[in-house]
Amino acid sequence: VIISSVGASMFGATDPEFTWLDIENLLIEKNIFPYKSVAASMGGGRDLGRGLNIAGREVIREAARRNNVPLVHENNLEKNIRRKMEIFEDAVNGKPYALYVNVGGGLSSLGISVNGRLVKPGFHRHIALKNNPLKGTMFLFADRGVPIAHLLDITKISDMYDLPEAPDPLPEPGTGSMFKDERYNIKIASIASIILVILILIVIFFDHKQLKLKEDEIEI
């Protein structure tokens, strides 16, 4: 179940004629991406498009219309969060979620921007963040015991998993240390070590035995 933010704060889906919803729709048409957003919001300040002028907000509304995606646009951030939780719940008919994935720093997911920095990027089975003045959907799911994948600060994530940043040329899909890594096989190494120790003991035993025989010959 995907709820997207149409606004983008970084270079990428910032072309008003080619927003994320347009990209998503194209990927679906090309049979690359089988999932479609069930709803979207403006993003930006308070998840209501604050910081954009009237024309900018209308561009977002038009993007939602041409891609046939309902736009969540309540009176304030708190109501946007509640509405998105309702959409998440209605989409699965009461079934539990296995994972919540947050991508970026959308306020409806985080609640307030500082929350994104208080939680390390990556996978979390539990999030124990107290004294939270406003919980976004990510934290509301965490309160229900749903594991979280927090994808914020891509540079830090790429460092964690040894992924190249803006590589040129682009690597082939499925290559790199994330997919293939050289590691020692502990089981084989342990067996080999035991065999080596046994061989050393055998050599020491026979060497000691030969030395004993030589000593006996000298005494005779």
Total number of beta strands: 6
Rg over C-alpha atoms, rounded to the nearest angstrom:
29 Å
Q: What composes the largest sheet?
A: 3 strands, parallel
Give the oligomeric state of the chains in this entry, treating copies of one chain as homo and distinct chains as hetero. single chain
Specify the overall morphology.
elongated
User: Helix coverage percent of residues?
Assistant: 40-55%
Structural class: mainly alpha
**Which blocks of ≥5 consecutive residues have pLDDT under 50?**
none
* Order of strands, widest sheet: 1-2-3
User: What is the N-to-C order of secondary-structure elements (H for helix, E for strand)?
Assistant: EHEHEHEHHEHEHH
Q: Tally the structural domains.
A: 2
Instruction: Count up the helices.
Output: 8
Mean pLDDT: 85
Strand content: 5-15%
Terminal residue distance: 91 Å
